[in-house]
């Protein structure tokens, strides 16, 4: 899933960013994907419905304090690929949880070196 590349940049290179925290990564991707799937189910795939889905995803992430910029592309990916609801669990939720787990381990191992990064800054 292409947005995961940008998620990795945040989680591994900018672990102190509020946008790179587990709540934002997992919540942002799950919420945005669900909104994309729901919008596609109700409205179909059109330029206006894709714009609506992205706008709704941004608003929902702001309301839930789960803003994660790479997740903003999830509704587009869902709608352009014609993904089904199973896409929400795999690869989206499973993949985002895996990224957080690997980032956690990576930063724990790197803590012994000169980087001294603490990840995550907060779990919620």
Automatic annotation (TrEMBL):
Keyword Membrane (UniProt): yes
Keyword Transcription: no
TM region positions: 46-64, 76-106
Domain (HPP transmembrane region) ranges: 1-120
The entry's keywords: Membrane, Transmembrane, Transmembrane helix
Domain of life (superkingdom): Bacteria
N-terminal signal peptide: none
InterPro entries tied to this protein: HPP, TM_HPP
Annotated protein name in UniProt: HPP transmembrane region domain-containing protein
Species: Gordoniibacillus kamchatkensis
